[in-house]
Amino acid sequence: MGLSGVGGGLKGFAAGSITGGVEILITYPTEYVKTNLQLDQMGEHKKYSGVLDCVRKTVKEYGIFGMYRGLSPLIVGGIPKMAVRFGTFEYFSEKFKEEDGSEAHVWRFIAGMIAGITEAIFVVTPMETIKVKFINDLRSSEPRFKGLVHGVTQIIKNEGIGGIYRGATATIIKQGSNQAIRSFVLYSLKDWYTGRDPKATVPHLLVGIFGATAGGTSVCIDNPVDVVKTRMQGLEAAKYKNSLDCFLTTMKEEGPLAFYKGTLPRMTRVCLDVGLTFMIYDTIKDLINKRWT
Asked: Could you give the CA distance from residue 178 to residue 221 in angstroms, rounded to a whole number?
């Protein structure tokens, strides 16, 4: 185990932790709307006609801070998620580099995939399941969860520890593909800008634009997986046998367009999220590199 890989991983872990807290506070409202639209079903149980309707009804009933309902699970999980993601990515990126410091695009794709799978197993699956159940609970006429601790306790009491690992397969696929695609696109754009010159730098604002492009690309490719993941983690997940059954049932009952529910708010959130994340991360990593050698 080379020290360079460990050092890169620790720097990524530190920079990722700070990045995680900042970006969640900025982007959560779009995540709230996206999740509500994905949980919305056809027929008499349908609550929202679209993005603006969801925002209007939420603000009317709960005020502007209603857009931050269910935030606590994401704050608690978001910081370690980014820490694990960037720590793992930086570690494997260092391992995959050639002697001259270059790295093939395919290895960045693989490093991103490993990072996504790692964060899905250790952080994202339980965090996302709790978040979706909280938002799902808030949609009911008589919400059951009184707070984060009470809600998590009730979920584990009623469903066991497996209750916070619903949709694990879909989440692993989603996170693995997300990070693989985003890493590949982002670093390909960086290489294009710098001409693969290891000494050249990319302005932080441009990194943000490249990150937004990478995020939008991932949404176009894997939104169906995100819909399945959200439904498998909702309070009505018990009606599905597994992720495949959820996919087939949704296709049969609602058609293929159901897999692109919430695409607009997710696209908005992800482009903003990924753009900000990479821009903040690059800035923080540069500061850490100046102090940590």
From this structure: 9
What is the CB neighbour count within 10 angstroms for residue 167? Answer: 26
How many Å is the maximal CA-CA distance in the chain? 62
Give the mean pLDDT of 86-105. 85
Place of tokens 């009804």: 57
The answer, yes or no, to whether residue 86 has pLDDT greater than 90, is yes
The crossing angle, in degrees rounded to 10, of helices 263-291 and 204-233 is 130
- Which of the four pLDDT bands, split at 50, 70 and 90, describes residue 3? very low
pTM > 0.90: no
What string of DSSP letters covers 102-160? ---HHHHHHHHHHHHHHHIIIIIHHHHHHHHHHHHHHHSSS----SHHHHHHHHHHHH-
Task: Kindly write down the DSSP assignment for every residue of 193-239, as one continuous string.
Answer: HHTT-TT----HHHHHHHHHHHHHHHHHHHHHHHHHHHHHHSTTGGG
d(CA 75, CA 115): 20
Closest CA to 117 of 90, 85, 94: 85
